[in-house]
Amino acid sequence: MTDQSGQPLGLLKAGAWAVLLAAAVNAVLYLVGDALGAFPPDAIAPGPEGQARPITLGPVLILSVLGPAVGAAVYGTLRQFTNRAWLVFVGIALAVLLLMAVLPFQVEGAPVAQVVILQVMHLVAGGATIAMMARTRP
């Protein structure tokens, strides 16, 4: 994606697009999954300070915004310190995605559909971030 002059997107604009894409797609995934019964209230996710709670739209949106925002910040920081920022960023992003793949399996009582949807949500957030950060490269 380029701006109107054909130049690569700026980091801030690309980060905003990544956040918007991840939040919008993941909200739709959650709403469809919830309508189909994939997010039952008795499926409990571990929370901060041991506070377990069901997964709702609020946390989905918060994490869908935080992931791409942090990813854009990491990529921006890497660009300041290394000439291989893109390669390092993609490596970090893929490692984080791999680590995040464990989390849906920690939701106590989660049906298979919920685990699958949560995995897809992680891929959406990671994919949007990587794709939009790629648009900032000259």
Short summary of the structure?
The protein is mainly alpha-helical and 138 residues long. It has four helices and two strands.
Key attributes of the depicted protein:
138 residues; mainly alpha; 4 helices; 2 strands; two-stranded antiparallel ribbon
Task: Write a structural description.
It is a single chain. The protein is mainly α and 138 residues long. It has one domain (11-134). It is 64% helix and 3% strand. The chain has helices spanning 11-35, 57-81, 85-100, 112-134, and strands at 44-45, 53-54. The chain has a two-stranded antiparallel ribbon with strand order 1-2. A hairpin with a 7-residue loop joins strand 1 (44-45) and strand 2 (53-54). The longest helix is centred in the first third of the chain and has 25 residues, at 11-35. The radius of gyration is 16 Å and the shape is elongated. The N and C termini lie close together (11 Å). The model has no long low-confidence stretch (mean pLDDT 92).
Number of helical segments?
4
User: How does the overall form come out from the CA principal axes?
Assistant: elongated
Largest sheet: 2 strands, antiparallel
- Helix/strand structural class: mainly alpha
Q: Report low-confidence residues grouped into runs of 5 or more.
A: none
List how many beta strands DSSP finds: 2
Mean pLDDT over the residues: 92
Supply the number of structural domains: 1
Q: How large, in whole angstroms, is the Cα Rg?
A: 16 Å
Spatial arrangement of strands, main beta sheet? 1-2
Tell me the fraction of residues in β-strands, as a range: under 5%
Helix content: 55-70%
Taking the alpha carbons of the first and last residues, their distance comes to: 11 Å
Secondary-structure element string = HEEHHH
